[in-house]
Amino acid sequence: MQAHYIDLSLFQVLVAALLVLINGLISLLLGLKLERSLIIGAVRMTIQLMLVGLVLNWVFGIGHWYLVLIMMSIMTAIAGYTAVDRVSLRYPGIRYISMFSVWVGSWVVTALALFFVVQVKPWYTPQYAIPLLGMILGNILNGISLGLERFTHDLESKRAEVETVLALGGTSWEAARPHVSAAVRAGMVPIINTMMVAGIVTLPGMMTGQLLAGVHPVAAVKYQIVIIFLIAVATGVGTISGVLLSYRRLFNARHQFMHFELKKSKK
C-alpha cells in the first residue's frame, strides 16, 4: 500500500532544529568555538529556505517563462559568485571565469534534461526546471571550487617545477598539464564517490524526498539515476571549463607563468 504524504507542522520543524543544540554542546565541551557559526548557519539556512519557499510558491502558481528564467538566473549567478569564496589563492577575473563555467555547465545540461531526457512540456514548467537546475548547481559549484583551489594551490606551491619546464623550452601546456589534470580530478572526485555508494550506503536526496512524498520506489529510483548522471556531466563540464580558463589566464602567449597574478584571499 502506498504511503500518504505527511505535512510537517512548525512544531515538528522546531523539534528537528533543537537537535542542532547537540552540535553546540559538543563544540562547548571540546572548545571548538563553533557555537556562533552553528547558530548563524542554522538561522540563515532557515530564513533562506523559508523565503525561497514563498518565492517558489509564487512562481509555481504563476508559471510564466520569464519568471522561471529570472529565478534560474539569480540562482546561477549566486552559485558562480559563491564558488570562489572557498578558493584561497585568486587572480583578477576569477569570479567571471567561475560565473561563466557554472552557467555553461549547468544550463546546457539542464536544457538537455528538459528537452530530451524528461521532455517537459512546456520546457519552463517550474516544478521541473527550477529543482533540476538547483540540484545541478549545488554540485557544480562544489566541483569548480575544488578544482580552482587545487589548480591555483598547485601552481603556487610547485612554481619552481613549472618555471623549470618553461626555462628548458617547454610550452605552458606542458608545464601546466599535470596540475590541470590534478585539479579536474579533484573537482570530479565527490560526484564519483556519490555514484559509487548511491543506493548501497546512501539514498540520495531527490530519491529520499520522492519516497517521503509517496512516489513509487522504482519511479523514484529512475529519476535519481537521471539526476546523478546529469550532475556528473555538469560537474565535469564546469570543472574543466573553470580550470582551463584559469590556465589561459595565468599563462600568456609567450609561455610565461604569471605567478604575480595570484594573491591570497583576504577572507
How would you describe what is shown here?
- The protein is mainly alpha-helical.
- It folds into 2 domains: 62 residues, no CATH class; 201 residues, no CATH class.
- The protein has a two-stranded antiparallel ribbon.
- Helix 6 runs parallel beside helix 10 and helix 9 runs antiparallel to helix 10.
- The protein is globular, with a radius of gyration of 22 Å.
- It starts with 9 loop residues before the first helix and ends with a strand.
Q: What is the topological layout?
A:
Elements lengths: L9 H9 L2 H10 L4 H28 L2 H18 L6 E2 L3 H24 L8 H32 L1 H9 L4 H26 L7 H8 L4 H34 L12 E2 L3
Give the key terms.
mainly alpha; 267 residues; 10 helices; globular
Mean pLDDT, to the nearest integer, reads 89
Helix run count: 10
Q: In whole angstroms, how far apart are the ends? A: 53 Å
Report the major sheet.
2 strands, antiparallel
Number of strands: 2
SSE sequence, one letter per element: HHHHEHHHHHHE
Number of domains: 2
Radius of gyration: 22 Å
**Cα shape:** globular
In terms of DSSP E residues, the strand content is under 5%
* Unreliable runs: none
Overall structural class, as computed from helix and strand content, comes to: mainly alpha
Tell me the helix content.
over 70%
Strand order of the largest sheet: 1-2
Short description:
This protein is an all-alpha fold.
